[in-house]
Amino acid sequence: MLIDLFPPTVLHALDIAGIFVFAISGALLAVRKNFDVFGIMVLAGATATGGGLIRDLIIGAVPPAAFTDLGYLVTPVVAAVLVMFLHPEVERINRAVGVFDAAGLGLFCVVGTTKAFEYGLGLPFAAVLGVVTAAGGGVVRDVLANEVPSLLRWDREIYAVPAIVGASMCALLIQADALNPVTSALSAATAFVLRLCAIRYGWRAPRAWHRRSATAEEP
Amino acid sequence: MLIDLFPPTVLHALDIAGIFVFAISGALLAVRKNFDVFGIMVLAGATATGGGLIRDLIIGAVPPAAFTDLGYLVTPVVAAVLVMFLHPEVERINRAVGVFDAAGLGLFCVVGTTKAFEYGLGLPFAAVLGVVTAAGGGVVRDVLANEVPSLLRWDREIYAVPAIVGASMCALLIQADALNPVTSALSAATAFVLRLCAIRYGWRAPRAWHRRSATAEEP
Amino acid sequence: MLIDLFPPTVLHALDIAGIFVFAISGALLAVRKNFDVFGIMVLAGATATGGGLIRDLIIGAVPPAAFTDLGYLVTPVVAAVLVMFLHPEVERINRAVGVFDAAGLGLFCVVGTTKAFEYGLGLPFAAVLGVVTAAGGGVVRDVLANEVPSLLRWDREIYAVPAIVGASMCALLIQADALNPVTSALSAATAFVLRLCAIRYGWRAPRAWHRRSATAEEP
Known about the structure:
Chains A, B, C: Its main location: membrane. Chains A, B, C: This is Trimeric intracellular cation channel family protein. Chains A, B, C: InterPro entries: Gly_transporter. By secondary structure, chain A is mainly alpha-helical. Helices cover 73% and strands 0% of the residues of chain A. Chain A has helices spanning 2-5, 8-32, 37-59, 70-92, 94-118, 123-144, 160-175, 181-201. The N and C termini of chain A lie far apart (45 Å). Chains in contact: A-B, A-C, B-C. Chains A and B meet through α3, α6 and α7 of A and α2, α3 and α4 of B.
C-alpha cells in the first residue's frame, strides 16, 4: 500500500536514512559503554533493524526485510565505522542526530503500521506494530547494552507518545480509506514534530500517583 | 483440543483473567522502577503476553494470539491504569495478587502445552513450551526492567517447578489419551496449589553444591 | 548441503558436542550468579540453543531444530546437573572448556551459514546468521543473567572475529561452488584456531578512537 503511494526509490532512500540514524544512536551508546569495534557494529545493527525485525517475525514476513536488502546490512556498518572514528564530532552534533532520529521515528511508525495491515493484522494491532517498528530498536539497543530502556523511563523526553500518535493516525486513515501520499506523510510529520517538541520543551509523561508509598524507589 | 474441552467463553474468560494478573505484576514492577505511564503499559503488556508470544513464534502460529484478540491489548492497558492510580492499594493486597498469579501460572502451563501439541510438537517440547507460556512473561518483564529474572534466582520461591509439574502432567495425560476437562483442570490445579504452597512455606530449589568455592559470588 | 557432505551421525554427534560445551558455559555463569537448579538449567539451555533458535525463527524454519530433536533438550540438562555438582572441578578445567567452546564456535558458524543459505537467504545474510548461530547463544546467556554481553565488551578476547572469518569463508566457498567436506571442515577449523589464538595471546579488537572525549565512561 504505502509501497504504491510513493516511488519505491524515494521510500527506500527514506528507509535507509532512518536505518542510518538509528544505527548512529546504537553506535554512540556502544562507544559510551566501551565496546570494541564489533560490539559497536552489533549494537548499531541491532538498533537499526531490531524494531522491523520483531514486526516481521510477528506478522510472519520471513525472512525479514533486514535479511533480504543489503542496504540494511551495509548502512549500520558504515554508521558504526563513522561513529568509531568521529564520535566526539557526532556527539557535538547531537541535536542534529536527535532531529534525524525523530524523522526516523515518524517514518517507521507509518511504514510499520502499513506493512502490518498489509499482512492482515487488525488495525489496532497494526498500530501497535507501527510503534514497535519505530521504538523497538531502541529497546533492543538498551537491553543488549544492559541499560534500563530509555523508552520506559520517566526521566526521558517522551518517545512512545509521538509514535503512538503517528501510528494511530495512520491506522485511522486506513480505516477511513483515506491513506494517500499526503495523509501518510502528514502522519509521519505529526510524529516527527511531536518528538521534536518533546526534546525542545522537555516533555515527559506522568508517572504513577502516590510516589511516596513505601514501595517506591526514588531514582 | 483444550479448545474443545471447555466452552470457548469459559476458556476465554480464564485466559483474560490470567493476562490481567500477569499484567498487574508487570505494572507493579514498572511503578517500582519509576517508569512513566507508557513504560507501565509496555511492561504490563510484555509481561502478560510475552510467554504466549514466544510460544507462538516457535510453533509458527503467526500472527500470534496476542495480535489477533483485542482482549490481549485492552486488558494490560486497564491493568496498567489501575496500578498507576492504585498501586499502594494493589501492593497491600499483594497476597491476593500472588494467588491470582498462581492461577494464571496453572492455566497457562496447561493451555501452552496443549496448543504446542496441537501444532505438531513432540510432547517433551510441548511441555517445555507450556512452561515458557507460564513463566516466559515474567522473564521478559525482568529483562526489560534490567533486573535479574526472578525465575532464575535462588532467593525466590520456586516458580518453575509448579509450571514444570503442571505441564508434564498435561503432556502425560495427552500421551495416555486421557486429557479431558477434568484431568486438564486437575493439571492446572496441581500447578496452582504447588505455587501457593511455595509462597506460603517459602519453598526454594537447591543451588549448586560447594558454594564456598572461589568462583562463587555470595549475594 | 552440509547435511549431505558428512554422514548424518557424525554431524549430529558434533552438533550435540557443541550444544554441550555451550550449555556448560551457561551453567557456569548461572552458578556464579547464584541461580537455583532450574535457573542453571534454563541458562544452560538458552545458551546452548539460543543462537540456532534465533536463526531458525529468522529463516522461517519452524518449529526450530531445538524443538524437534530430543538431544537439544537432554544435553543442556545433563550439562547443568554436571556443573551443579562439579562446578569447582569444571572451573579448574576452564582451559579445556575454552577449547571445546572454540570448537563449537567453529562448527556452528559453518552449520549456521549453510542452513541459512539452504533456506534461500543471500550469502552475506547467510554469513551473518552463521555468526548469530555461533555467538547468539552467549548473548542470550548474558542478557538473561543481566550482564553486559561479553561478545560486545572490549576487555574480552575477540569472539566475533573468528566467527565472522569462518562464516565468510564458508559463504565464499558456496559462492565458488567449492563447499565440500574438506573445505567446510577447513572453514570451521580456521574459526577454531583463530579463537584459540585469541585466548592464548589475549587478542582484543580495537575500541573507538579518542577515548578521552567527555562522553567516554572509563571502565
